[in-house]
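Subject: Adenosylhomocysteinase structure
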Amino acid sequence: MNYDIRDISLAAQGKRRIAWAAQHMPVLSQLSAEFAAERSFEGKRIAAALHITTETAVLLLALRAGGAEVALCASNPLSTKDDVCAALVEEGISVYAFYDEDIETYGRHIEQALACDPHLVMDDGADLIVALHQRAESGSTIAAIEETTTGVIRARALAEQKLLRFPVVAVNDAPTKHYFDNRYGTGQNTIDGILRATNTLLAGATLVVAGYGWCGRGVAARARGMGARVIVCEVNATRALEAVMDGFQVLPMLQAAELGDIFVTVTGIAGVIRGEHFQRMKDGAILANSGHFNVEIDIAALADSASERAQVREHLEEYRMPDGRKLYLLAQGRLVGQVAAEASPAAIMDLSFADQALCTRYLLQEYQHLTPDVHDVPAAIDERVAALKLRALGIELDSLNEQQEVYARSWQLGTVS
């Protein structure tokens, strides 16, 4: 086993924190026992590029329990927890990552993870998928799983251009992922990251959310719950209308720029907040991103506009404009909830990572029946994850009786039947 981490002596601390997360991930713990009994991944090599957190560790250890050989690198250079890396190395996983690695190291670690010649790649942002497609051949890789919106966009772009070489399952699009992880997980950790980085008061503040997908819905709801006035910016008419019906003001970013105290981007698109917006912002405006890559806020334009820069607090950088106004960028424009906070709670990641674990087994068994395209998570997997979670919470469901089953399948029964 090879690895490149910061400090192996942190393993004991990492194991304690992973154990705490596992206590709040009952679905994945059950699947881990199932995989171990079946040896579901015996002889299979998996390369993963993920946020290296305690919750991610629980997922990878479940795969390891099923017999998989796992190589791991980071999907974000600032979300890596060094003690988790050390703990995973001691558990037999090859880890190539450490907190705040530079971009050159980040790229090298991707190549080191892929050096295992994986049968399957597990991605968060599609960096592994893209790296494989930049090679002449993809080696032994037969399938991939993509966890986040931005990565699904990249995988679909490859598919649309007829370049995708193997099937990719879009875990991000599963209801048990985006209804919960994106809405409740990202909604909470984004607000958590902003508060930890700034210690600002949300009550009475105007918070601008760019993007009203499931992440944007979660951020907007939690900001309103803490007393903020929320403005939504959108390019999609249906989502904008939904924001209006949910009680939020909808404005173009050029107008919202003059009103916001805090700005949060959650779109998966580059250049959402740009130079013309910085020029209109009030003194003290705070800029945060909760999209996967640090491209949603035009950081280069912000730096070019500023006459001075200073680090005020950890994860809080001040940009002084020539006219004296100060704008504040959080977490270097990267995922604020992953960088400045603890990422999504374990109880939420239990769902997303259960989806990933079951899709891993599904792909390794069924890949030959799937075309090189982006595929949905099978409905049976999604339903099983939800059912397991409800059971873990002690919640029971109703079931249809025989008469209701007949009615549900009938076309004869109606108003005059």
